[in-house]
Amino acid sequence: MSVPATVSAASAQARWPRLRRPDPVALMALPAFAYLAASYGWPLIALLGHSLSGPDGISLAPFAQFLSDPYSWRVIGNTVRSALFVTLVCLLAGYPAAIALARARGAVQALLLLSVILPLSVGVVVKAYAWQIVLRRDGVVSQSLVGLGIWDAPQRLLFTETGLVIGAANVFLPFMILPIYSVIRLIDPRLSEAAATLGASPARRFLTVTLPLTLPGIVSGIAFVFSLAVSMYVVPSLVIGDRYQTLATLTGRAFLFMRDERLGSTTAVILLAFAVAVVVGSTALARRLGGGGRS
Q1: Pair 289, 214: CB distance under 8 Å
Q2: Architecture field, domain 59-122+163-289
Q3: Is 50:261 a contact under the CB 8 Å cutoff?
Q4: Packing angle between helix 247-256 and helix 261-289, nearest 10 degrees?
Q5: Domain residues of the chain, as ranges?
Q6: Which helix (H) or strand (E) holds 57?
Q7: Between the CA of residue 155 and those of 3, 218, 246, 280, what are the distances in Å?
Q8: Which residues pair with 53 in a beta bridge?
Q9: pLDDT tens sequence across 119-157
């Protein structure tokens, strides 16, 4: 008994499923993907390979040697601590600003949005040099604190960790405001009004309605700022100098001055691991908070 041709073709197609045709819209991303792979992905792979290379082939000896030095842990501590302080300052200052930006209307909102976006057009080097002037002993910050009675005499904030946090927070603040603002503007204001009609106080409305709904934006903002702050190079170099080493400044110093490519590659890979862990973890957390994990 012969098998019909249609049945034979159907069974062959089931056995060898036809390849799915690529989406033409997705093909538009190929030039950008190729550029990133060539200018970013391949150098990172080469950097990782260089950090793992040894006299006898692949080796973890450079990482073991770096992590066995107490000075290296001091550098890692400086990096993480300064990034955490910068992120905290940006969160405390950026969250109220994001709420005000989302609640404003018309020309006021446009002016506030412009004041957040416009500083991004100013180079980091220019901002760092400006903070050198502001944070010195006779600068605006010191004179203001003396005028308010907080300090008895002018003090220098330049070349201190406090000055580094202030200067870096100024640079990275927009990256905290914009993600939170984009989430707040999508929240229905009637939810807070409904909670008010049920007798909830303003503090309770914020803690039970506004704050939980804005958590995805908070997580995204923290990820943006922390990943940028943990790898900042220009601001520490100009505001605090060589006396306060971070992983980024040590990487630059190893490549530019010490000519130690193995040390520079090792610190760069450790720095990259910090940034990737923060981005991947925050993405998963933001997706879970935003309901992306539900089917």
Answers
A1: no
A2: Orthogonal Bundle (1.10)
A3: yes
A4: 150
A5: 59-122+163-289
A6: strand 57-58
A7: 93, 34, 24, 41
A8: 58
A9: 888 888 888 888 888 888 888 888 888 888 888 888 888
